[in-house]
Design goal:
This protein has about 100 residues and is α+β, with helices and mostly antiparallel strands. Helices cover about 40% and strands about 30% of the residues. The protein has a four-stranded antiparallel sheet. The longest helix has 17 residues. The radius of gyration is 14 Å and the shape is globular.
């Protein structure tokens, strides 16, 4: 069963540019590590501290394998460190979804 991980980020609104760079970095890293990245979305109007990402996988097991590769990838490690060092992500929530089909 295919799944999509919906990630909701609460970000520091004064560090939106840093989060956007972090998101752009994932645009190449995630597919390289086997994730099917649907995209990242930045706040535009209204709420200025919430961003989203969607990543799909063929199964939960495939997602877990992709996450292991991501955490071992030098570019992935550097991007995680960028977020931790600059503290622009205040909270992160992951919801695992499946598509409704006939």
């Amino acid at each position: 069963m295919a799944i999509t991980v919906f990630i909701r980020y609460q970000i520091d609104p004064f560090k939106r540019a840093m989060f956007e760079q972090y998101s752009k970095n994932w645009l190449t890293i995630i597919p390289k590590c086997g994730g099917d990245l649907q995209g990242y979305w930045m706040p535009h109007e209204g709420t200025n501290n919430i961003a989203f990402a969607l990543i799909s996988s063929k199964s939960l097991a495939a997602y877990e394998s992709y996450r292991m590769r991501l955490r071992a990838d030098p570019e992935g490690v550097a991007n995680f460190a960028l977020a931790e060092e600059n503290r622009f992500i205040l909270a992160e929530e992951r919801t695992f979804l499946r598509k409704v089909e006939l």
